[in-house]
């Protein structure tokens, strides 16, 4: 066993946190820089732009690194957003705490002052919260006139996520979409059903040229209400790259099979888009593709809500399917469940065309060895063979034949399995024209169960006539131009049933390394809107909240510390003396985290050439906030003008008052708390004890002198 003292002035655990967090500084702000993660064993690469994927890819052998991973995973599981902020603040505050240690600040004083300081800031920023109702009113009352400024999309190339600047310009230039829906509520009674809704949020991109003046027209346009002159000097760029182009004309057929569809088309008036569509864009932080898909989902669910009174946004009714090999312009939202199957299964689906299918739901694995959770084998009994093969066939043949006989006897055509499926059973079912698909998310099983009346079973032996449902339909998924897609090894198919609320966001890309990236960005946008509606309020974005925290800490620092109040402020009276002595220094360390955060975001957005100049700009606004007398009022006025931290601060900065950026309340504050809790937890550790075979490695390593071997 080896022992190492870590609670020195150069605290090793905090240094490890700071080093790990430095890799994610490029993920801050809307202008994110992507990273390639390369697997040396397979030479395959993945494109990432989130802290979650970064931490998953790092070799976290240290105890501090594992704690960091757990903290980020918890934030991701609960909010799906705020992980990049958490990661950066962990690094910033770790470095600040190390500086405090080097100045001989006691650990107890650091823990007390930073904890109390953060709690005070979280209470102070509550005055900035804006209710969703007020946000909707302001967003819908704001008018964005596309012809008042020149679209810069052609200057920056295609709307590729590999080109975030072009992405943001397109978000600025394209007006909000108008949803033209073909509702069947009028002729289907109370069953507010929308037949095949193939929603292509990118169909309007082909009309972007109407906002762009021809090349050679160098006239200038003045934005009403401002002194900004937008030049129309347009340069042609390559927009038909086989790999990175996402701009493309979407040609939709009016009828695909026997299903209707409703399409997104560009609208001249942004207020024709739903209020939630505006809110989704304000929370997207520049994620153009994700927000367009999300607006399609919002439009669909809002129309259903008018008929059935359901929730405006139900994330349990949304799943994703990633298709590799198609341009990103084919991304859309399709009603029902879209998934990938083998070419052999696709042939079975062609046989099912226009037929009503009997469906079975299996809540578990469809394998011979599967046993449900909680299954207990008899004690003191050793099982040699559960099902003796008296007929002398191959092992498992009896089970396969019995399962297939059950499905055939109940005339089941479609089986959705939550877990894994036995390969041999899958092949036999396919040969018998029984479609078995797995694994399938639980929410998908629930959605089909509610509409078809099918009851999930754990084992096929439990199947009875009341467990099977009817009315499902299966077909090959068709692209926007009406072609059924054959992507080689896997074929996309769509399973639907009348009245099902399930929607599938079909994410397409021609770049294999972008598949996970697009899926992560979509879910982040979806959960941001979900949590905003759940909280009922949002924060003004663009650095407004962090700026108020800095202003509040400045006030706390300048307040004189009195011994009489120290006992009230800090629960332990014996801490009052060291806390009073080091309070100002520790609060400045806490403030340095947010100041570095704002500086890095500004540098990532090219709002400042260096962190030094960015810090100077932050200090300038802090001084003006103090001179104003009411820092919160000053910051809200900056946000209202779209001028937080000078010259705009967000993906919609050039729109002035047209579009603003908002942040989630709970996700942001919890990211702060978790970051500081992790830093203080590591700070209070005083030793690292290593056991196991690694001891021998440490004996021969260059750092063996740092350890005490027991």
Automatic annotation (TrEMBL):
One of its GO terms (biological process) is chaperone-mediated protein complex assembly. One of its GO terms (molecular function) is ATP binding. This is Bardet-Biedl syndrome 12 protein isoform X2. It holds the Pfam family Cpn60_TCP1.
């Amino acid at each position: 066993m080896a022992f190492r003292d870590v609670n020195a002035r150069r605290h090793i655990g905090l240094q490890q946190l700071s080093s790990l967090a430095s890799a994610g500084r490029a993920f801050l702000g809307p202008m994110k820089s992507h990273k390639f993660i390369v697997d040396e064993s397979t030479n395959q690469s993945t494109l990432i732009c989130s802290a979650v994927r970064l931490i998953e890819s790092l070799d976290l052998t240290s105890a501090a690194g594992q704690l960091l991973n757990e903290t980020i995973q918890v934030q991701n599981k609960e909010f799906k957003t705020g992980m990049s902020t958490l990661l950066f603040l962990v690094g910033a505050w770790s470095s600040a705490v190390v500086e405090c240690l080097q100045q001989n600040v006691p650990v107890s004083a650091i823990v007390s002052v930073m904890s109390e300081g953060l709690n005070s800031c979280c209470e102070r920023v509550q005055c900035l919260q804006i209710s969703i109702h007020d946000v909707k009113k302001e967003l819908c009352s704001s008018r964005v006139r596309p012809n008042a400024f020149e679209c810069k999309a052609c200057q920056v190339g295609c709307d590729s996520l590999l080109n975030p600047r072009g992405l943001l310009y397109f978000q600025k230039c394209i007006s909000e979409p108008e949803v033209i829906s073909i509702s069947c509520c009028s002729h289907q009674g109370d069953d507010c059903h929308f037949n095949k809704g193939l929603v292509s949020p990118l169909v309007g991109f082909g009309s972007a040229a109407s906002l762009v003046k021809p090349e050679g027209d160098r006239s200038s346009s003045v934005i009403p209400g401002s002194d900004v002159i937008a030049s129309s000097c347009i340069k042609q760029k390559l927009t038909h790259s086989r790999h990175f182009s996402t701009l493309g004309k979407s040609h939709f057929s009016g009828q695909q099979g026997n299903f209707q569809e409703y399409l997104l088309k560009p609208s001249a008036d942004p207020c024709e888009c739903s209020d939630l569509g505006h809110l989704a864009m304000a929370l997207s932080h520049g994620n153009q593709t994700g927000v367009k898909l999300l607006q399609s989902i919002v439009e669909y669910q809002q129309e259903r809500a008018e008929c059935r009174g359901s929730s405006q946004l139900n994330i349990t009714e949304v799943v994703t399917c990633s298709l590799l090999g198609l341009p990103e312009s084919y991304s859309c939202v399709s009603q029902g469940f879209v998934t990938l199957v083998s070419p052999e299964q696709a042939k079975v689906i062609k046989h099912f065309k226009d037929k009503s299918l009997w469906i079975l739901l299996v809540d578990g694995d469809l394998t011979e060895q599967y046993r449900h959770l909680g299954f207990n084998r008899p004690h003191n009994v050793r099982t040699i063979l559960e099902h003796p093969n008296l007929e002398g066939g191959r092992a498992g043949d009896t089970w396969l034949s019995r399962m297939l006989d059950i499905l055939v006897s109940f005339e089941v055509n479609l089986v959705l399995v939550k877990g894994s499926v036995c390969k041999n059973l899958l092949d036999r079912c396919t040969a018998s024209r029984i479609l078995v698909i797995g694994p399938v998310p639980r929410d998908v099983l629930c959605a089909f169960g509610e509409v078809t009346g099918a009851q999930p079973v754990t084992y096929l032996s439990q199947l009875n006539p009341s467990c099977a449902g009817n009315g499902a339909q299966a077909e090959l998924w068709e692209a926007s131009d009406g072609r059924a897609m054959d992507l080689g090894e896997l074929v996309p198919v769509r399973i639907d049933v009348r009245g099902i609320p399930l929607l599938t966001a079909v994410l397409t890309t021609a770049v294999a390394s972008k598949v996970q990236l697009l899926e992560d960005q979509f879910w982040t946008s979806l959960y941001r809107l979900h949590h905003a509606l759940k909280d009922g309020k949002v924060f003004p974005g663009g650095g407004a909240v962090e700026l108020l925290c800095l202003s509040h800490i400045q006030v706390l620092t300048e307040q004189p510390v009195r011994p009489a109040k120290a006992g009230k402020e800090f629960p332990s009276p014996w801490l009052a003396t060291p806390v009073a002595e080091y309070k100002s220094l520790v609060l400045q360390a806490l403030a340095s985290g947010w100041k570095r955060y704002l500086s890095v975001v500004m540098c990532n957005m090219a709002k400042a050439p260096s962190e030094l100049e960015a810090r100077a700009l932050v200090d300038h606004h802090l001084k003006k906030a103090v001179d104003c007398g009411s820092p919160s009022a000053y910051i809200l006025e900056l946000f209202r003008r779209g001028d937080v931290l000078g010259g705009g601060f967000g993906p919609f900065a050039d729109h002035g008052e047209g579009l603003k950026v908002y942040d989630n309340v709970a996700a942001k504050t919890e990211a702060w708390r978790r970051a500081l809790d992790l830093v203080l937890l590591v700070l209070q550790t005083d030793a690292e004890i290593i056991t196991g075979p690694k001891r021998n490695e440490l004996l021969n390593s260059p750092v063996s002198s740092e350890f005490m071997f027991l």
